[in-house]
Amino acid sequence: MTTTTRLALTTVNLDTPDPAALSRFYACLLGWTVEVEEADDVILRAPEGGVGLSFQRERAYVRPTWPAEADRQQMMMHLEIGVEDLAAALDHALACGATLAEFQPQDDVRVCLDPDGHPFCLWLMD
Questions:
Q1: What are residue 14's DSSP bridge partners?
Q2: Which of 18, 24, 42, 60 would you call most buried, defined as having the most Cβ atoms within 10 angstroms of its Cβ?
Q3: Which residues of 84-103 are buried (b: 16+ CB within 10 A; e: fewer)?
């Protein structure tokens, strides 16, 4: 199937009970800046452009479980963040407010949880 219009992925949205707080965490982690800040929605953009991150208030938010467990809220997606120095990146993520997940499935990846429990991976780039 071919489309007759241009499609462009512009933003990945994370649900959160507190958009301002979660956006501050990711701004610290990634060094990104706030482009839009409203009570129920905050958008971050990378200085070099590209896909942004949006944080949208979800009043019925349920913290995901990592790793997945039956009959518990599971993650629906996660962010992959490439790093050059895994130990330094992990230290930085923890200083910004992340927690290291108890389960670590790979030696060259660190699964962390943001303050709302969304898993994200720090992975060692070549």
A1: 55
A2: 42
A3: eebeebbebbeebbbeebee
- The whole model's pTM is what? 0.91
Ordered domains of the chain (ranges, CATH): 9-58 (3.30.720.120), 65-126 (3.10.180.10)
Q: Which two tokens stand for residue 76?
A: 């629906």
- pLDDT digit of tens for each residue in the chain (126 aa)? 777 899 999 999 999 999 999 999 999 999 999 999 999 999 999 999 999 999 999 999 999 988 877 887 776 789 999 999 999 999 999 999 999 999 999 999 999 999 999 999 999 997
